[in-house]
Design a protein that fits this description.
There is one protein chain. The longest helix has 20 residues. The protein has 383 residues and is an alpha/beta fold. It has a 5-stranded mixed β-sheet with strand order 6-7-8-11-9, covered by helices on one side. Strands 15-14-16-17-18 form a 5-stranded mixed β-sheet. Strands 1-2 form a two-stranded antiparallel sheet. Strand 6 and strand 7 form a beta hairpin. It folds into 2 domains: 180 residues, CbiD-like, CATH 3.30.2110; 191 residues, no CATH class.
Length: 383
């Protein structure tokens, strides 16, 4: 068990190691057993992060032609669906080179824009380099001059993959072997952001110039009702709006359209680009400010002072609707959102937002949306 820890607030959380580290460690052990004919109970592997891991080697099978073993995925305190699964590596001699293949439970790439080309096993670049380095070390240690074929497999991986983003991202038939540092940090925002970037790269690789960002399940339901032609093309950015916009700019998208529930996106009216409640709230403060800027009489102001006590944005909208200033408040809000979005992209893309509420429907659109929509409709094949 890996004894590396990080702190999330006051909580001490144990780190783990990635599927890539497991595959590399298993490949190292399998190669050593193939070349020596002796079983190995544990191997050491230096991860790209510089942390040494020494996992147990499990379920060994070997004869004169191959050696196979497994390493159990240790996700630490991260709630990962792959935690505890066995990741196998099979090593066989070939005339030259180190060849890495995927077998049972390893997904296949079916869409462009991912780390691996279409048709390849979903074993990402960093794990491939880790496997190659580990196998090369053993070959040099035992003065072996030939090649090694390493086959990675995960029994049950096809079922596990259904609980991941793989089917949506065009990886079929199993899980991915991933990891850029070799170490899993619990509750890692970096992993979530990388998932967003991966989906963005996929859209770009298909030739898309216009990116649609949504923020969660409410957005998906809204698209299914109002804009079904967008449903399969959107990239879910969750709370990481700022990071998603940065990624879109880096990839060169010409337009960025953000669609989301007002409960999240109202925070953009204060320039808040990470909408997680642990980062910032300000929802009611934004609505009160926008309502006051919309112009209110003393009686309306008395009602507006109740908004800070509201638990949900829909409850605040009910107050604004009851005193007849919901639309005027929304107009101010959309102007503020457009201002902060424009400040974020700095002229490198056209950007706009659509906010909705399950109770009130579309709350507002920023000024750019109407001019953006023909480009989206044309690119996405709708009239």
């Amino acid at each position: 068990m890996l004894e590396e820890y990080i702190y999330h607030g006051a909580q001490k959380l144990r780190c783990g190691y990635t599927t890539g580290s497991c595959a590399a460690a298993a490949a190292k052990a399998a190669t050593q057993m193939l070349l020596t004919g002796e079983k190995v109970s544990r191997v050491e592997l230096l991860t790209p992060k510089g942390i040494l891991i020494a996992p147990d080697i499990l379920d060994i099978a070997m004869n004169e032609t191959f050696a196979q073993c497994a390493v159990q995925k240790d996700g630490g305190d991260d709630p990962d669906v792959t935690n505890g699964v066995l990741i196998y590596a099979r090593a066989e001699k070939i005339p030259f080179d180190i060849v890495i293949e995927g077998d049972e439970g390893i997904g296949r790439v079916t869409k462009p824009g991912l780390d691996q080309p279409v048709g390849n096993a979903a074993i990402n670049s960093v794990p491939r380099r880790m496997i190659t380095a580990a196998v090369t070390d053993i070959c040099e240690q035992y003065d072996y001059r030939g090649g090694i074929r390493v086959t990675i497999s995960v029994p049950g991986g096809a079922e596990l993959a259904k609980k991941t983003y793989n089917p949506r991202m065009g990886i079929e038939g199993g899980i991915s072997i991933i990891g850029t540092t070799g170490i899993v940090e619990p509750m890692s925002n970096a992993a979530l952001v990388e998932t967003i970037r991966t989906e963005q790269r996929m859209r770009k690789a298909t030739g898309r110039k216009n990116l649609l960002l949504t923020v969660g399940n409410y957005s998906k339901s809204f698209l299914a009702r109002e804009m079904p032609f967008f449903l399969d093309e959107s990239v879910t950015c969750s709370n990481f709006i700022g990071e998603a916009i940065d990624g879109a700019l880096e990839l060169g998208f010409e337009r960025i359209l953000l669609i989301g529930h007002i409960g999240k996106l109202v925070k953009l009216g204060a320039g808040i680009m990470n909408t997680h409640s642990a980062q910032a709230d300000g929802r009611m403060d934004v609505l009160v400010t926008c309502a006051v800027l919309a112009g209110v009489n003393p009686d309306q102001l008395a009602q507006i002072t109740k908004i800070p006590d509201c638990v949900t944005v829909d409850a605040a909208l009910e107050i604004l609707d009851s005193i007849g200033i919901k639309e005027a408040t929304a107009d101010i809000l959309m102007k503020r959102i457009q201002y902060y979005l424009d400040a974020k992209v700095k002229g490198d893309a056209v950007i706009g937002a659509v906010l909705f509420s399950d109770k009130f429907g579309i709350i507002g659109k920023t000024a750019t949306v109407e001019s953006m929509m023909p480009h989206y409709r044309k690119e996405y094949g709708t009239s």
